[in-house]
Amino acid sequence: MSNSNLNKIEEFMELIRAPGEVAEVRIFSDRNGTVSGYFDNWKDMREAVSFYDGKNSIFVTINPVDPNLKARADNRLKTYAQTTTSDKDIVKRTTLLVDLDPIRASGISATEEEHEKAIELAEEIKKELTNSGWSNPIVASSGNGAHLLYRIDLPNDRESRELIQKTLEALDFKYSSDNVKVDTSNYNAARISKLIGTVTTKGDDTDDRPHRRSKILSKPNSWEKVEVEKLEEVAQQLPQKNNPQNGSHAGYDGNAASAGNFVLKKFIEEHDLEVARKSRWNGNSTRYILEECPWRDHSDRRSAYIIEFDSGALAAGCHHDSCSHENWFSLREKLDPEYSQEDSDDGFEFDGELEENSQINKLLNIIETLEFFLDELEEPHIVLPIESHKELWHYESHKVEQYLYQEYLKRHKTVPNTDSMNTILKIIATKAHMSGNKKKLYRRVGKDQKDNFYYDLCDENWRAIKIEPGNIELVDQQPMIFTRNKNMMEQGTPNFDLESPAASLAKILKHVTLEGSGNQLLYQVYLVASLIPDISSPVLVIFGQKGSAKSTFLRVTKHFLDPARMDLLTMPNSKKDMIISLQNNYFTCYDNLSSLSKMKSDLLCIASTGGAFSTRTLYTTKDETIMSFKRPVAINGINLVTTEPDLIDRSIIFELERIKENKYTEDSKIWSDYQSDLPEILGGAILILSKAMKIYPEVKPEKLGRMAEFSKWGYSIAQAMGIGGQTFLDAYFANQDGSNLEVVESHPLAAAMVKLMEKRKELKGTVAEILNKLISVARKNSISTDADQFPGSASALSRRLKEVKSNLEDVGIYYEKKKKSRAKILTITNENTEPVGKVTELKVDQFSELNNDNNDDKSESMCLDME
C-alpha cells in the first residue's frame, strides 16, 4: 500500500470520528480467523491494516465504540479474536450509512457498469435529499458500490434504531431498482462498513470484475448533522399497514384491493402513468414508483407509488401530506370515473377469520421456497436463508420461530398471532414428512455423500472445514449436514500455515499433565481420530489423585474437539437423561465419577462402538423410533471406576500424577496460553488427518487391537505424523495390557481366578466345585465375595466367567466347559505357570449341584429398558 493510500485511511477516519473517539477494525481472514483491534490513533490503524490490504476486505465500525474496549487490543490488531463490538458497546450514533450495492451474484466483485450505476444512484439520492433539507454527505466508492455517509447525533437506544431502520427502508422503497439496492440491514448501532482507503477483495480479481480500492468521491466543507425531523420525514414516507381491527380495508396506506381479473400493467398504460422505477420489494410484491403524482402537482417528482402484491392485492399512495389520505381506490376513481368502490368486488373488509387465514397465507409465502426434510429419527427440519448463508434447524427450534416472525415483520410491518404461528409450524412438519427427503445429521464432525469429512466451526456464518485426502478447505457454507444446540460454542479458525503439523499438534502436551512418550503419542492420535465421523472411538478414561489436573485435562480435550458452554457434565442418574446427554454432545465429558453402574457402563460401550436405543419414552409418540449414534466419550475420577470388562476393552486409560506445589499455575494463565496455541494445534490435527485419509486405504497392519477400526485409523494417523504406525500400535497394545491388568485386579472373580491358578498348571472340577474353590481363595486374599460381579451360585459362574474371559486369556488363563454325565465340568489351564506336581483334578460328585445355565453358549444381546 502506498503512502498516499495510507493517508486516505487517516483522512476518512478524521472525517467520521472526533478526537478521542474509538473505532474497531475487523477483518475476516481464512488463516487468522477474525482479526480485530480498537483504535483512536489513525496512524497506528493504517500501519496495522497494511499487512491485510489487498488480501482481505477490511471493515470499521461506523459509530464510536466504548473506549474501555481498547483493553482488548489497544491500537493493534489481534488474530483469532473471540469477542467483537456489540450494539451495547456503542457510545452513540454519529453516522447514517446509506449503502448502495449493485445487484449481482454473491461472492463476486462488480463490473465497471454495475459500479457506475451505484454511484449514479448515490448522486441522485444525495441531490433529492439535499433539496429536501438534508445536509451534504460524504460520498464514497466502496469498491463495488457507493456509500452516502450522513452525520447524525442520536442516542444508542431502541427509538433511534427503529428510526434508522424505517429511514433506510423508506429509501429502499423509493430508490432501489432491479440494478442497485439500498441495503436496509445497516440500522444496528455496531454495524461495520468498508474502511475507506482499503481494497475490496470479493471473489477473484478478474479483468471484468476487478478488485478496487475504496475511496472518497466527494466531501462537504463542513460535515453537518441531519436533524431528527428530516430523518422522520423520510421514515414516514414508508407505506404503513393499518391495524385491521380499526375496520379499515386491507392493504397499505389505508386501503388495498384484490386484483381479481384486473391487469395493472394495462391500467398503467391506458392512463399514461409514467413509471420512473420498478422493482421487487419486500419479497412479496412489485413496486412501481411513478414519475409524477397522479392526484396533485408537486414540485418534486417520484413521490407516488403503486404496489402489486403476489397475492393479487393492490395498494397506492403518495408521501406528501396533502396526499396522505389517497389510496388505490381514490386512484381508480380519479382515473376511471365509472369505477365505484362500493359497487366493485375488488375491495374487502377484514374480519377475524379472514385475518387469520390471511396471516397463514402470508406465512406460507415465506416458507414456499424453503427446503424441508427428516433426519434419521424422522424429526422434521428446515433450511433457513439467513443473509449470505443458510442455517439448518429443527422445526420447533426458537430459531425457526424467530425467522418467521422477523420475515413477517419485515414484509408486513406486524407479527402473526400465536394460532397462525402454531399452524404454520404444523404445516412445516407435514411438508417435511411429505417431501420424501431424509438425511443423516451430525454434530460438530460429519461427512457428505462422497465421504469427505467436515468439521463444523459453529460460527454465525455456518462455516466448516472440509477435509479431503490431501486437501483442506474452509468452506463458507457447509453442506447442511450439521445440527446445533444452545450448548455448542464457536471454534476458532484453525491455522493451516504450518511448517510441521506434527510439531504443532504436539503443543497440546504443554497443556495436559500426561507422562510417558507412549501415552503422549496415544493421546495425540486419539485427538486426530476423534475428528473422523462414524467410527468406533475408545472411551477416554482419566484417573488420579487430587491435584492431578484431571478436570483440566478433560476441559482441554473438550475445547479442542467440541467447545461448549457446559463443557464438563455430571453423569445423570437415569438412562433416559444419560442418552439425551450423549445425543446432545459430540464429545461428552463426565467429570468426577466415584462409581459406575453396570447400566451406565453399558451405555458408554454403546456410545463408543455404536448401538441403538428405543426413543419411544423420549418422545411422546405411539410409534417406536430408533436412535443410533457413535460418540467419543470421556470420564474422570480419583479412582478407576471402569471395572466392567466390556468397557475396559473399549477404553484408553491414563493415570495422571499429582502436580507438584511449585508447578501450580493460575487458571487464567493456563487458558490464555492454551487459546493462543489452539489454532495451531487444531490446524496440525486436521492437516494430519487429511494426509492419513490418503494413507488409510493402503495400510495393512499385521495385527489390530480389539477396536480394529480405531487401530487402523490410528496406524494411518501415526504414519502421517511421521512416527510410524507400528509405534502407535505398540503404545496402544501396552495401554490395553495395562487396562487388562486393571480389570483383573479390580474384578473380584478375575482376581480370585488368578489367585486360584497362581501355582497350578491345570484344574478340573464341576462348576459348583470350582465356585467353592474360588470363594475359599477369595476369602483368604480379602477379595470381596459380596460384590455384584462375584457369582452367587454355580449357574451364575459360567455367565460371569464370560464377562472376563478375554481378560483372563490375556494373562494366560483359559477355561473350557464340557458336559460329563449330569454335571458340567470346567477345565482351567494356566499357560504362564510351570506345573507343580501332577495336574490337580477334583473328584466329580454326581450328586453335586447341577449347572442349570443352559444358555451359556448362546450369543448375548443388550436390551436397555428405557422406562
Walkthrough of the structure:
The protein is of the alpha+beta class. It has five domains: 3-230, DNA primase, PRIM domain; 244-335, no CATH class; 369-435, no CATH class; 501-739, Rossmann fold (3-Layer(aba) Sandwich); 747-841, Aspartate Aminotransferase, domain 1, CATH 3.90.1150. The protein is 34% helix and 19% strand. The chain is built from 23 helices and 33 strands. The protein starts with a helix and ends in a 26-residue tail after the last strand.
Set down the secondary structure blueprint.
Elements lengths: L2 H14 L6 E7 L3 E7 L2 H8 L8 E4 L31 E10 L9 H20 L6 E4 L4 E9 L3 H18 L4 E3 L9 E3 L4 E2 L11 E2 L1 E4 L9 H8 L21 E2 L5 H7 L4 E7 L3 E6 L13 E6 L3 E6 L9 H8 L16 H16 L3 E4 L5 E7 L2 E6 L3 H15 L5 H18 L9 E3 L5 E4 L7 E5 L2 E5 L25 H5 L11 H13 L9 E5 L6 H12 L13 H9 L4 E3 L7 H12 L1 E4 L11 E4 L3 E5 L7 H5 L1 E5 L11 H29 L12 H14 L3 H22 L1 H9 L5 E5 H14 L13 H10 L1 H6 L2 E8 L2 E8 L9 E2 L26
Parallel strand pairs: 24-28, 24-29, 25-28, 30-33
Antiparallel strand pairs: 1-2, 1-3, 3-8, 4-6, 4-7, 5-6, 5-11, 9-10, 12-16, 13-14, 14-15, 15-16, 17-18, 18-19, 20-21, 21-22, 22-23, 26-27, 30-32, 31-32
N- to C-terminal separation?
68 Å
Helix content: 25-40%
Low-confidence regions: 241-260, 345-356, 615-625, 834-867
CATH topology of the largest domain: Rossmann fold
Structural class: alpha+beta
If strands are numbered along the chain, what order do they take across the biggest sheet? Answer: 7-4-6-5-11
- Count of helix runs: 23
What does the main sheet amount to? Answer: 5 strands, antiparallel
Query: What is the name of the CATH architecture of the largest domain?
Result: 3-Layer(aba) Sandwich
